[in-house]
Amino acid sequence: MDRKIRVAVVGASGRMGREVVKTVLTEPDMELVAGVDRSTGPVDLGRLVGLEPCGVAMHTDLELALVESGVDVMVDFTAPQTAYAHTSLAITHGIRPVIGTTGFTPEQIEDLDKQCRENGLGGLIAPNFSIGAILMMKFAAQASKYFPHLEIIEYHGDQKLDAPSGTSIKTAEMISEVREEIRQGNPHEEETIEGSRGGLYNGFRIHSVRLPGIFAQQEVIMASPGQTLKIRHDSHERSSYMPGVALAIRKVMTYEGMIYGFEHFID
């Protein structure tokens, strides 16, 4: 498109929101036109992220911000409790949603896809925007054809609310698309401490570690007689997600329908 993509960031004062604001302000083909956060006053968004003032003040009313600002794309990294309503509201106003919040049900994703198509809009829901993490998922899915005995271990900080993480669930879904469900381990296995074997997903286990000082890590451990294969990705800071967010903002301008999973943008 000839003009810049006009972007609104919801949850703009949050840790991920601030990174998105900074990214949009520094991308030459994007224009930050709105930031929304109910807990923050009308601060200039450039100052909020340590840059020069940009002339865009924080909104507290999402719908008002979307209507007044001529938004093309809404980026939302808020909470599962509000993400569905935010996404539906954006689509209603002809705005393409890029959602980094997990917790959507398959029925909600199907409904949002229908809304997008009815309005001629593209949208994206992605548990993880890190290109490295997406490659990890793809490699794990490919390897699971040959190493069907596997477990997933994901590590996050102790303030993370959901377990397992959206990334590990998406990894499990991708693996399950190509791996036949099998029974792993001893059929007479017994947990002497409940939960010690992790959560069961299509015959394999997902383990969630929550400790202070950890940002985001995940490994898929695969094994067969005489050998193991470990595929691991570590994110050390939120900036690792921003190239993916920028790519997503551009991509949703080019198609119709709601896509679930950033891996669809990575060949």
From TrEMBL:
NADP(+) binds at residue 38. SUPFAM superfamilies: Glyceraldehyde-3-phosphate dehydrogenase-like, C-terminal domain, NAD(P)-binding Rossmann-fold domains. Its main location: cytoplasm. One of its GO terms (cellular component) is cytosol. The keyword Disulfide bond does not apply. It is found in: Cytoplasm. Residues 5-129 form the Dihydrodipicolinate reductase N-terminal domain. One of its GO terms (biological process) is diaminopimelate biosynthetic process. Residues 132-265 form the Dihydrodipicolinate reductase C-terminal domain. It catalyses: (S)-2,3,4,5-tetrahydrodipicolinate + NADP(+) + H2O = (2S,4S)-4-hydroxy-2,3,4,5-tetrahydrodipicolinate + NADPH + H(+); (S)-2,3,4,5-tetrahydrodipicolinate + NAD(+) + H2O = (2S,4S)-4-hydroxy-2,3,4,5-tetrahydrodipicolinate + NADH + H(+). The active site is at residues 156, 160. Pfam families: DapB_C (PF05173), DapB_N (PF01113). NAD(+) binds at residues 11-16, 37, 100-102, 126-129. One of its GO terms (molecular function) is 4-hydroxy-tetrahydrodipicolinate reductase. CDD domains: DHDPR_N. HAMAP family: DapB. Belongs to the DapB family. This is 4-hydroxy-tetrahydrodipicolinate reductase. The lineage of its organism: Bacteria, Bacillati, Bacillota, Bacilli, Bacillales.
